[in-house]
Amino acid sequence: MPHTPPLPAPILQALDRADASWRAVLLRGLEAMAAADPAYLPALAADNYLPTELRLFAAFELPLDRVRYVLVGEGPYPRAESATGVCFMDGAVKGLWSDQAGGGLAKPVNKATSLRNFMKMLLVADGLLAADNTAGAALAAVAAQARGSAQATQTLAGIQHKLIGHGFLLLNASLVFRPHVAPVKDAKAWLPFFETVIAALEPAQPTLILWGKIAEQLNRLPVVQALPQIVAEHPYNLSFIGNRDMHALFGPLRLLRA
Fold it and tell me: I want to staple 25 with a disulfide (CB 3.0 to 4.6 A). Which of 100, 115, 154, 200 is the partner?
């Protein structure tokens, strides 16, 4: 049997960001990664990767027994300020609405294509925008009404808080981003970890929401195939705004209503 090196200290330190209910599962996942490729984690620990600040397992702040959905994106944002360790939660985005007269979404939201499309999808799902008219004056009118309103969610952190409250584990197929490594390659290395996490959740039968081709490839795992799931294009596609499956899922959650 080949020798498996001990898990690197910086990787283990990052476990402290996860809820205690996850620790044994995450350790098993890391050990499965090490068994599959003993060189991967030591090389990763010695490399520069995102997210920084020991936020590798930040998505696991939600206790294991509260998980009702697992939302899977592709990987962390490729910018240090944006990569939070939580799928789709861009750390560079604070407020959601433009503070400019006639403005729609806040500038940082508009710059993040996927987040912009996600917001527009939520607005369509909530009946606040028509699917064929999600920009310009229509969006500005919605923003004007939402801006500063006690009935509207004002920040991306507010959306994250509501998602977690609904039992969403906001996970990426690859927990790291490195500019010199293809995301699909890192995602492949994290497969044994992901498989371990899903196996721990399988008795509760959470719904998987798979966004994009890298996330969809997780269906190669039998444990993933065994769970209820909703598969969609990645939100950087404009078609995501009109995705009826996403409307049906997110509409009832009223994420944009405080």
Answer: 200
